[in-house]
UniProtKB/TrEMBL annotation:
This is Radical SAM domain protein. Its cofactor is [4Fe-4S] cluster. Residues 13-250 form the Radical SAM core domain. It comes from the Bacteria. Keywords: Iron, Iron-sulfur, Metal-binding, S-adenosyl-L-methionine. It holds the Pfam family Radical_SAM.
Length: 365
């Protein structure tokens, strides 16, 4: 839809024939960000070697993902609306390599080449910008569709207290090197109470760096903040709605394409669950496979990879929970973060809540 400002705004619907594989090839990282979502107790500390990465990539490369069910006598599965992997047929699969810091895994360049040979539609690397193991010189722009750099502030003063001393300098240096090497670069900014005041300054920094795609993300209370206390990181509805859409439009008017999660849905907007309506797999080094990002701290993963075979786990898993139809929209927010849901005085739901996967996109006109 073209808005009055001449910008194109659209909700990015989950595509029925598109699959996303979020592949955590290790959980180790050189940084210790305050909002880090990694939980090594739940997700393992293994650094996957190239052979394991190849085998696991093969599981998700086919048009339909096959799996084995762990048989359970006298039990049943409440599958609800969820379509099991073999019921999805993906025309295209996108792989996102992440960690921890994925460039710390020396197998990453080989993994990228293998994913390209297997025919993945797009290959993205999410990095904190330190680009270990001479990463940029081991791959080419033709192999990697997008390198996505995490930056949580337009200056070291905002970014570094969140991500660590020196992180701003290293990340912006990495962005410059990647752009001058011909790579397609994007930036992801995780909005929290620690940096929302600075979001409006990001579009100009991105313009100066030459970045054309900007992802605004909502902080999730999982991993470190869930374990250590969330430091009041979460941004409430009013502030989110005041700031984020406006900055997105400002960035788009500078020629930058912006994607951000809707989080709070208007009365006439349909709720869509990424786990039910999309086909997303969040794979961790210990073999756990989740379909809902909010569940990643919990042992409710739907699948696990054992001996390089994808296995559907017995109930109770995410599948049994997320397919429930509730007035609040997202079941896992209701269970884990009920404080996110706005209720009226008589208990009515004022806005359905969606997760970080349901996005709004604002493009230059
Ligand atoms: S860079 Fe990513 S993985 Fe590393 S500490 Fe920060 S959020 Fe966690
Ligand atoms: S966080 Fe909520 S909306 Fe997102 S996949 Fe999980 S249950 Fe669905």
């Amino acid at each position: 839809m073209k808005s009055q400002t001449g910008l194109k705004v659209r909700t990015v619907q989950f595509k029925p024939n598109s699959r996303n594989l979020f592949f955590h090839i290790l959980t180790q990282c050189n940084l210790r960000c305050k909002h880090c979502y990694i939980n090594q107790d739940a997700q393992g500390k293994e650094i996957l070697d190239s052979e394991t990465i190849f085998n696991w990539l093969k599981i998700f490369a086919n048009r339909a993902v096959s799996f084995e069910e762990i048989p359970l006598e006298g039990n049943f599965r409440f599958k609800g609306k969820f379509r099991l992997p073999h019921e999805h047929v993906a025309e295209q699969t996108n792989v996102i390599f992440l960690g921890g810091e994925p460039t710390l895994n020396p197998a990453l360049p080989e993994a990228i080449r293998y994913a390209r040979d297997l025919g993945f539609r797009s290959i993205t690397v999410d990095t904190n910008g330190y680009l270990f193991h001479d990463f940029l010189n081991k791959v080419t722009p033709g192999l990697v569709d997008n390198i996505c750099f995490s930056l949580d502030g337009s200056t070291p003063q905002t970014n570094d207290p969140i991500r660590g001393h020196g992180a701003f300098e290293r990340c912006t240096q990495g962005i410059r090197e990647a752009i001058s090497g011909g790579f397609n670069v994007s930036v992801i900014f995780t909005v929290s109470m620690l940096n929302i005041h600075d979001l409006a300054r990001m579009p100009h920094l991105l313009q100066e760096l030459g970045v054309e795609n900007f992802f605004i993300q909502v902080v999730g209370i999982r991993g470190r903040p869930a374990k250590e206390g969330d430091y009041g990181l979460q941004v409430g509805r009013t502030l989110w709605e005041e700031v984020v859409p406006k900055v997105a439009k400002e960035a788009a008017s500078l020629g930058i394409t912006v994607t951000y999660p809707k989080v709070y849905l208007g009365k006439n907007e349909d709720f869509s669950c990424a786990g039910v309506d999309g086909e997303n797999y969040f794979v961790f080094p210990n073999g756990r496979v989740y379909i809902c990002p909010l569940c990643e701290d919990l042992a409710v993963h739907s699948f696990e990879i054992k001996d390089n075979v994808l296995k559907l786990r017995p109930p109770i898993t995410e599948l049994d929970l997320i397919a429930l139809n509730i007035p609040e929209g997202c079941v896992m927010n209701k269970i884990l973060h009920p404080e996110n849901i706005p209720y009226g005085e008589s208990g009515e739901v004022l806005a359905k809540v969606a997760c970080c996967m349901l996005k709004e996109e604002v493009r230059p006109g």
